[in-house]
Amino acid sequence: MLRKSSGLVLAITAPFLATAPLFATAPLFAAAPLSAAAPLSAAAPLFAAVPATEVRPVTDTLHGERVTDNYRWLEGDNSDPDNMGRLTDEVTHWTDQQNAYTRAVLDQLPGRAALEARLRELMEVPRISLPGRYGDRYFHARREGGQPQAVRYVRRGLHGKDRILLDPQQIDPSGLTTIAWTAPTRDGKLMAFGMYSSGDENTTLYLMDVDTGTWLADEIPGKVNFSEWLQDNSGFFYTRLEDTDNAYSKVMKFHQLGTHQREDRVLFRQQDIDFFYAASGKTEQELETLKTTWGPNGLPSEDGRWLAIWYWTGTASLDLWVADLQHWFRTGSLKLQPAVSGKSGRLGAMHFSGDELYLQHSIGAANGTVSLLDLKKPAYDRWRSIVPEHKNLVIQSTAFAADLISVNYLENAQTRIFLFTPDGKPRGALELPGIGSAALSVADDRNDGFLSFSSYNTPPSIYHVDLRSGQRQLWAKPEVPVDAEAIAVKQVWYTSRDGTRVSMFVVHKKGTLLDGNNPTILYGYGGFDITMTPQFSATLFPWFEQGGVYAVANLRGGGEYGNAWHEAGMLERKQNVFDDFIAAAQWLIDAGYTNPQQLGIAGGSNGGLLTGAAVVQRPDLFGAVISAVPLLDMLRYQNFLMARFWVGEYGSAENAEQYAFIKQYSPYQQVSPDTSYPAVLLTAGENDTRVHPLHARKMAAAMQAATRSDPTRKPILLWVDRDAGHGAGKPLDLQIRDLADQRIFMMWQLGMLSATTATP
Asked: Do 518 and 462 sit in the same domain of this protein?
């Protein structure tokens, strides 16, 4: 991900499997206050029968081995190879039956109504984003009370009065419309913004006059991501898909205000692979493969002089060029000057300064560095180190103020911020309110900004901060009706299967007796260089108050400990991630926190793959499992939606060498007949444009057929949300329903429900 330091939501993102791990800002498993009566161990009454699923075997031969898939039909219509998995009537009918079964199970569990009421109280606490300053205007987002979506506000001056810019509920009373991003001009007079509906993430770009609130006529559809305004506000650069059914059809264009988007000029297209690699010597097959990687993106300088272009060749590698934009404006020809090619590493923040480019990256520096490039001579061997790599700290992000560079580091998955001059001289640390997670929003014409901070036991706070003096003043801190001081947080280290030491955060109420009988939730992600750092969630506190424990493991595959940590959980090393997670579970048991019957695991997206793999590899180790919007059929995942973006992370079964290790862990193929599986809740979004719901469908069918466990006590449940996608943009009511589903499920399975909580 590349992120400009001065933007409120100005971001240029690669299409990660998950831009942020599911549940990162609203962790799972808050519970309503419960009776001290005996836990509910018997089956709840009036459970519906498990829906029957027809077996229709399809056998493929993969690299000389026969592989049979009993539930291929649940993928949908695969007759069009360019649009695999289209929904059919019979799959819709089957899903209706599964959804009805899940509702019959979860809705009648005792305490459900009280749980939803408590969740609503906690989730209606205001949530406020970091402000961004543009000219004398300050932009931020806030959701409070029963508002289904966050509202965008602007104020003139630091202490001015907030004014509503965009209220999604006024645009769409259903609450299903989401503002994906906002991008004001440097002076704050105009604002581009993107919106989508029902979680499909197919964003349409609109424009607004900020002072009047008037929407301009300009409108651009097609899963648009904003890039950069020109300084005079006359136009902007953006990327979109030429075909929203083809995730690999990205194009970058320039839009002149007041013109129709049909007239927008093209800078480059993803499918024009020869434009990037004509002289590379790559084979035709290599070029075809590159067309379906994350592909190209670009960031122009605000003065319209330069363009940085990078092409993702994998999840941990890319190639980078620069181009003279003035030449392109004059001639329509974009001439690429190579900066770096064929090296492992990723990019972070970029900042143009005249004919130079500051670049945060991890190329040749596993823990990250900041370099300065001469854009007229950008070759890699001429890059000058400004902030050198640190042996023990990993750069997470970088922000550029007027004459200071702020570098956000991770030390053992916790934030530290250090300041440097533009030529790299250290200016010391920016003091933080405590140990936790912090982020900084600054503008490149000032040395003040906004700092956010939170931890598991520290409610989120936003401070206005002077970077030179370090002085900070509280700007916003929502009142949360919980006792944060009552919660203990500690970081522990445990040993994984191969001897690697792994860190984990463990959170619980102070004084909790560690007698091996505490209901415990273990959460993990472990992929795509994404980090798990301490985050506050009010909805966890009732869980803690009832003696529950919450643990988050910093698994390999993540970015907590640099490039090497990420790469240790990729491709043929993916089993390391599952081993780390299983070892975390075993440590929690051995340390006296819990036992297998009271240990639940949860994860979403890549984390759904994690929990899916864990349950088929060690069904004896867990009492309950949540696998949300997961990848599970890893032999076929690459055929659907944007999944070829992730071949660099997972590999593909189309490759014989990669098939050999993927088949060993692919959860769907590893479901074993006549096995005592714990209870499992699988979820999916029908409008998901990232992970196809077929994974959850097929896994539910396979596990329902395979489990030897009593389905009235340990059911395999599937919930497919017809009004949602991968998870982003859900209105408040749907968030509450989903959280209630997941938490009542865990409370039931881990022994936290009692018969006395039942309602008539």
From this structure: no
Asked if 5 contacts 444 with a C-beta cutoff of 8 angstroms, the reply is: yes
The pLDDT, as a whole number, for residue 543 is 87
Q: How confident is the model at residue 47, as a pLDDT?
A: 62
Per DSSP, 662 falls in state: H
| CA 682 – CA 290 distance, rounded (Å) | 33
Give me 35's structure tokens.
């009776």
Q: Give residue 576's domain range.
A: 86-121+482-757
Same domain, 382 and 398: no
Would you say 15 and 247 are in contact if contact means Cβ atoms under 8 Å apart?
A: yes
**Residue at a domain's end among 329, 357, 389:** 389
Angstrom distance (rounded) from CA 224 to CA 239: 6
List active site positions.
605, 726
Say whether both 612 and 501 belong to one domain.
yes
Report pLDDT digits (tens) over 674-721. Answer: 999 999 999 999 999 999 999 999 999 999 999 999 999 999 999 999
- Supply the mean pLDDT for the chain: 92
Question: Which residues, in sequence order, are CB contacts of 78 under 8 Å at separation 6+?
Answer: 84, 85
The two tokens of residue 561 are: 């400990």
Final residue belonging to a domain, choices 478, 498, 527? 478
Tell me how far apart the alpha carbons of residues 702 and 242 are, in angstroms, rounded to a whole number: 37
Residues 370 and 398 in one domain: no
pLDDT of residue 48: 76
Q: What SS3 string covers 157-179?
A: CCCCCCEEEECHHHHCCCCCEEE
CB atoms within 10 A of CB 660: 14
Contact (CB, 8 A) for 450 and 131 = yes
Return d(Cα 746, Cα 632) in angstroms, integer: 21
Do 508 and 610 fall within a single domain? yes
Q: Is 190 exposed, middle or buried (0-12, 13-18, 19+ CB in 10 A)?
A: buried
Structure tokens that stand for 206 in this block? 């609109």
How far is the C-alpha of 88 from the C-alpha of 106, rounded, in Å? 27
**146-168: per-residue pLDDT in tens?**
999 999 999 999 999 999 999 99
The answer to whether residue 310 sits within a structural domain is: yes
- Say if CB 496 and CB 579 are below 8 A apart: yes
Residues 278, 354, single domain; the answer is yes
CA 188 remoteness from chain centre = 28
Tell me the C-alpha distance between 720 and 102, whole Å.
Answer: 10
Q: Whole-angstrom Cα distance, residue 676 to residue 284?
A: 49
Beta strands in 284-355 (DSSP E): 295-300, 306-312, 317-324, 336-344, 347-353
Please compute, for residue 407, the number of CA atoms within 13 A of its CA located in the half-sphere on the CB side: 31
One domain, residues 572 and 460 = no
Joined tokens for residue 292: 């379906």
SS3 434: coil
Residue 690: inside a domain: yes
DSSP-derived secondary structure for 685-742: ETT-SSS-THHHHHHHHHHHHHB-S-TTTS-EEEEEETT-SSSTT--HHHHHHHHHHH
Give Cα 414 distance to the centre of its chain.
18
From 716, 747, 623, 547, select the one nearest 119 (Cα to Cα).
747
Report pTM: 0.93
In a domain, 649, yes or no: yes
CA-based nearest residue to 268, from 332, 348, 350: 332
Residues in contact with 285: Cβ distance below 8 Å, sequence separation at least 6, in sequence order: none
Task: Provide block-wise average pLDDT over 10 residues at a time, the chain (760 residues).
Answer: 33 37 32 34 59 97 98 97 94 98 96 92 94 97 95 96 97 96 98 97 98 96 97 97 95 97 96 91 90 92 96 92 97 96 94 98 97 98 97 97 97 97 97 95 96 95 96 94 94 98 97 95 98 94 90 98 97 98 98 98 98 98 98 98 96 98 98 98 97 98 98 97 94 94 96 57
Distance linking the first and last C-alpha atoms of the chain? 51
> How many domains is the chain built from?
3
Beta carbons of 76 and 123 less than 8 angstroms apart: no
